Amino acid sequence: MKQQPSLICDDKTHVQTVTSVHLGDVFIPANGKYVIFRVTNKGKERVTCLAGQPVMLGEPTYFPAVDLEPGRTLTRAFELDSNTSEENAGLLFDIRGAAGTSEPIDVEYSLMQFK
User: Fold this and answer.
1) For residues 37 and 114, is the Cβ–Cβ distance under 8 A?
2) What are 82-115's pLDDT values in tens digits?
3) Does the structural domain 7-114 have CATH classification 3.40.190.10?
4) Deepest in the core among 8, 22, 44, 47, taking most CB within 10 A?
5) Distance of alpha carbon 43 from alpha carbon 25, whole angstroms
6) Which tens digits make up the pLDDT trace of 54-70?
């Protein structure tokens, strides 16, 4: 039986842009301990996918970036600490053209939380 998400931020959202895609939300552990971010590159060139945590002042703290080739799908899963406060429960996601590419990006992405 397939588990249903407790929160759907985006579900197969399709974006074509010459800049980048920025998204994020606050994921309260009581709503589910897993956050799943899935991106499919529908474009002609690589895209870079970043995930990180916002900070009050300054630049976000990012996890290692992942380059995604055309036609490929990336799934990143995050487990939330049950003691995480709402102030520290934010996650950010960026999708942009990879270094050395010039084509617009064309992606489909989903961002969901699960129990």
Assistant:
1) no
2) 888 888 889 999 999 999 998 899 999 999 999 9
3) no
4) 47
5) 26
6) 887 778 889 999 999 99
